User: Which sequence fits this backbone?
């Protein structure tokens, strides 16, 4: 008895020092109103194991290893404080005080971390653990019984009135543990009946987490490990605190849920914190020297990066435009604050789908999160019935949600059915996807429809080989328009940036690529291009991570070029060919090139790169306009001279863009000076 009193005294000291006692007094003010008439009053107490252990080591051990006993101690002290200070006059028994402990953190030791890749086998003590994982499925928010008041059926029993029998939900307990019709009175053993008007309902949501290493398997990397998802119960204020495809750190209590004849293992969440990816703040010395060497030109650094990228797949100088746009998409795709996303979708049209697919797969490894989608899989979300007895719809994340903040690679679109392509087109246009939930199938009175933002960039390719064409496809009628293969024109417009990737190196492309593959097979690991700049995979990973963290702003010159090009294009093209989404694409491309060049202010030259890419894409889809841009305007020549000749040609394109704006936009001379 003396030990219990000492522990309660330590609880009171901690509540006073931590400010929890003042919060308890403030919470009681809202409960003491005339309209408040509940059987149970819930109080949240934030507990710091470190501070609590300094007050009383035994109490700190209870909180970390016997949370039920610790909760009972806090409940008793809070009830005594409420009665002593007369805070809530409607609280008569200790059973009416429901204290929920919220851990601020756990000790940084392996014993308090539960790794989802080493799934526990056997009995696990009901103590708080820390888990990190990726959300792969979740249900809608439903109701559960948080507390209920029961009265004795015997008129002579003291429990016929009052608050003697109150059942409160405990971690790991099912609905039947709180609500049943076979409870008996502890005083006279008579049956109990529920007082329905005092039933307390709460919100409940089920979420499935899986280990983050499962992303390697989703990106088509070789993995022989099988990953098991774990179900988490989110209750009350924690509902809707998680999103599909995001990483979270969860403090929870493992529990065995008994549902005869099965026993399921789940975790009752106590606290949720979103994990933020921290990239390297610096780049390698090689990149720093290259950046300093190419500082005289705003175009040269990005050109050399594209030239030296992917040497394991293609030789330098081949598919430079494709490599550049892949790098631009990698640095531009990122998750920002307030649940916003920045993306840059790519549609690659090629005759050599094998090499382009390999290059895209190689680039996928540099994304913070890359998922290779299969044509037979689910792209966005699928529904199934929850396995934990709730009968609710369980929403499983598809490839797009699993690639949140990264890249979802779709591969060749000719293998997709029409309904999948229509759904993709709608998602690209609105950046949202809707999930229809039939109410009759999942135990609801009415149907429901949920909307989710699309949190990733899409990479896809279209094979323009004649054998891949769909029957009945209309022939391109516009002069100068290219062949986009089996993809419809509306879907190509939804992607925004369409890149033609064929015959870039002329007739010698096949011979160059063949020699590259044979040399790699004969001399594996050898340096095949000693004269080229050596940039390792780690250099590119550090570069992309650092570029994504840069905060970019558009200069006045870049804004004027983008606005002028859009206004001029609206005069020479139709609204279906150039529209408001084109402005967003131009700004995104200019910011991406600025990031890739490791600058924070987008210059006019960055806007010129965006204009050339956008005009090339529009010309390939809809034909040429007054602004004549060749297919390979960004890499019109070799970089053997260090990019000097390329800079001169891009300067000519720069002047051509300014003349185009000056000719078709009245009043352009007020903000554009032709040099």
Assistant:
């Amino acid at each position: 008895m003396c030990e219990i009193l000492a522990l309660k005294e330590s609880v009171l000291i901690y509540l006073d020092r931590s400010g929890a006692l003042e919060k308890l007094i403030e919470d009681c003010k809202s409960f003491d109103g005339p309209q408040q008439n509940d059987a149970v009053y819930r109080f949240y107490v934030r507990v710091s194991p470190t501070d609590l252990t300094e007050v009383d080591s035994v109490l700190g051990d209870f909180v970390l290893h016997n949370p039920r006993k610790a909760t009972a101690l806090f409940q008793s002290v809070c009830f005594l404080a409420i009665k002593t200070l007369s805070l809530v006059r409607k609280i008569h028994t200790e059973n009416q005080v429901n204290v929920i402990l919220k851990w601020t953190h756990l000790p940084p030791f392996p014993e308090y971390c539960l790794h989802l890749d080493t799934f526990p086998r056997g009995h696990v003590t009901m103590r708080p653990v820390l888990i990190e994982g990726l959300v792969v499925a979740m249900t809608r928010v439903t109701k559960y019984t948080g507390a209920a008041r029961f009265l004795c059926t015997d008129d002579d029993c003291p429990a016929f009135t009052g608050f003697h029998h109150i059942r409160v939900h405990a971690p790991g307990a099912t609905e039947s543990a709180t609500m049943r019709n076979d409870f008996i009175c502890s005083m006279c053993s008579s049956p109990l009946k529920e007082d329905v008007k005092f039933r307390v309902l709460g919100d409940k949501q089920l979420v499935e987490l899986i280990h983050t290493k499962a992303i390697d398997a989703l990106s088509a990397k070789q993995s022989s490990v099988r990953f098991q998802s774990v179900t988490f119960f989110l209750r009350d204020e924690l509902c809707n605190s998680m999103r599909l495809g995001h990483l979270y750190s969860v403090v929870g209590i493992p529990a065995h849920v008994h549902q005869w004849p099965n026993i399921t293992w789940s975790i009752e969440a106590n606290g949720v914190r979103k994990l933020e990816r921290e990239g390297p703040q610096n780049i390698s010395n090689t990149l720093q020297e290259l950046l300093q060497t190419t500082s005289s030109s705003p175009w040269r650094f990005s050109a050399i990066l594209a030239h030296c990228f992917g040497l394991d797949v293609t030789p330098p100088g081949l598919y430079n435009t494709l490599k550049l746009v892949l790098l631009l998409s990698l640095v531009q795709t990122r998750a920002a604050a307030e649940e916003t996303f920045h993306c840059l979708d790519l549609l690659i049209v090629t005759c050599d789908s094998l090499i382009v697919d390999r290059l895209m797969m190689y680039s996928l490894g540099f994304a913070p999160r890359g998922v290779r989608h299969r044509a037979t899989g689910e792209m966005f979300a699928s529904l199934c019935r929850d396995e934990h007895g709730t009968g609710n719809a369980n929403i499983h994340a598809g490839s797009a949600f699993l690639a949140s903040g990264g890249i979802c690679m779709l591969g060749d679109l000719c293998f997709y059915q029409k309904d999948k392509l229509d759904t993709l087109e709608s998602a690209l246009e609105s950046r949202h996807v809707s999930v229809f939930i039939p109410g009759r199938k999942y135990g609801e009175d009415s149907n429901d429809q949920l909307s989710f933002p699309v949190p990733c960039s899409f990479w896809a390719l279209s094979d323009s080989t004649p054998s891949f064409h769909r029957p009945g496809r209309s022939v391109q009628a516009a002069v100068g328009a290219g062949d986009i293969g089996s993809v419809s024109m509306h879907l190509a417009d939804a992607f925004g940036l369409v890149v033609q990737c064929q015959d870039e190196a002329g007739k010698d492309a096949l011979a160059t690529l063949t020699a590259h593959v044979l040399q790699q097979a004969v001399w594996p690991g050898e340096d095949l291009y000693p004269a080229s700049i050596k940039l390792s995979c780690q250099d590119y990973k550090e570069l992309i991570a650092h570029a994504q963290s840069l905060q970019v702003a558009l200069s006045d010159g870049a804004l004027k070029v983008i606005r002028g090009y859009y206004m001029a294009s609206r005069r020479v093209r139709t609204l279906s060919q150039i529209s408001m989404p084109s402005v967003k694409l131009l700004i995104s491309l200019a910011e991406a090139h600025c990031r890739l060049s490791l600058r924070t202010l987008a210059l006019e030259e960055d806007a010129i790169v965006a204009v050339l890419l956008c005009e090339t894409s529009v010309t390939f889809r809809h034909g040429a306009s007054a602004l004549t841009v060749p297919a390979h305007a960004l890499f019109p020549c070799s970089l053997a001279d260090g990019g000097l000749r390329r800079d001169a040609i891009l300067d000519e394109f720069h002047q051509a863009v300014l003349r185009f704006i000056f000719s078709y936009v009245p009043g352009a001379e007020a903000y554009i000076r032709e040099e």
Q: What stands out?
A: The CA atoms of residues 123 and 572 lie 72 Å apart. Confidence is low (pLDDT under 50) at residues 468-480.
